[in-house]
Amino acid sequence: MKKQRKHCLYCGGEITKKSEDGVFRDFCPCCNSYFYENPLPVVSTIIESSRRILLVKRGRPPSKGLWCLPSGFAEAGESIEEAALRELKEETGIKGKIIKLLDVDSYKSRFYGDLLFLTFVVEQSGGKLCAGDDCSQARFWPVNKLPPLAFRSNKRALDAYIKSRRDYWAIFDSIEHTDKKTLPPAVAKNSLTRRLVNIIIKNKEKIVEQWLEDIAENPSTAEYHKVERAVLYNICDRILSQLTLWLGGLHDVSRIRNFYTNLGRERKKSGFKISGTLSALSLIRKHIWTFALAQDALQKNLELLMTFELQRRMTIFFDLATFYLTRGHEEK
Fold it and tell me: Does 173 fall in a domain?
């Protein structure tokens, strides 16, 4: 428990309480002086390496034996950034460079009273990992296996950090597993590709309706203007189903080849030109992409790399579709 002030630091007289601006503060009647209790600044740092977070195991009270971010009090005469890097070096042996201030949080401690936690994202610039005097251990933990943390403010900051990096990690998961038939469950659950699949599935009817309106008036699809709506609806629905299976890693090239070769034969048999058929296919891609980008799930925090990756995955699918559709149409 934090100790209370009993005597004046200047004259040694007994401290009383007196109201100032509606707040009862410590007051020395002899010196006619108030004593102010302001929150103590605590600095914490987040260093990530390959989705692992650097934590230290506390060797002293409070919360001895629990894990936390490298943390400590700022000292007089140093900037808050200097304090963060100093504590990081003292507790872990690692030298760092401040990237940004991530989070600020107020916390009431039984030991120290009101605290103000400032958490920085830091990049390692040197040093060697080694637990300092105040810590019994220092190690990197996987973001999905973090231990219980000593301080609520640390958990709050780490939650914010992991959330901010989730899309960034997801895009690299998607790239890494592009050529595999199926995605690992954890990757499939969080990947941006999975989100796109969900958007297509949930909004399939709307996407088809937009496509139908387009091809009914588009000059490049004149042959489709007189085709029964139900027939066109069925074609677009089948193509969207093929795409979601492809993006979800559940459909291989052989199935795409068979589907579009047969579709090309059907279009030729029905008297459609290849130019109009390919245009209709291209318009499906346009409406999928336009609709997806209008959704918050992809629009929010969507970086250029993510946009490129999603477009790349769709391009591969539609390039295959175009090739086999043309081949089927050309067969004699």
Answer: no
pLDDT band at 301 (very low <50, low <70, confident <90, very high): very low
Is 174 inside a domain boundary? no
Q: Find out whether 327 and 261 touch, Cβ atoms under 8 Å.
A: yes
Residues 295 and 317 in one domain: yes
Signed CA dihedral, 66, 69, 73, 75: sign only = positive
For 249, the domain range is 185-330
> Residue 58 above 80 pLDDT?
yes
Is residue 279 situated within a structural domain?
yes
Regarding predicted confidence, which is higher, 173 or 23?
23
Q: Do residues 122 and 88 make contact, with C-beta atoms less than 8 angstroms apart?
A: yes
For 156, the enclosing helix (H) or strand (E) is: helix 152-176
- Give me the torsion for CA of 85, 88, 93, 94, rounded to 10°: -60
The number of distinct structural domains making up the chain is 3
Question: Is this model's pTM higher than 0.70 or not?
Answer: no
- Asked if pLDDT for residue 151 goes beyond 50, the answer is yes
Distance of CA 282 to the CA centre of its chain: 31
Nearest to 89 by CA among 119, 124, 120, 113: 124
| Amino acid occupying residue 236 | C
Question: Residues 311, 176: contact at Cβ < 8 Å?
Answer: no
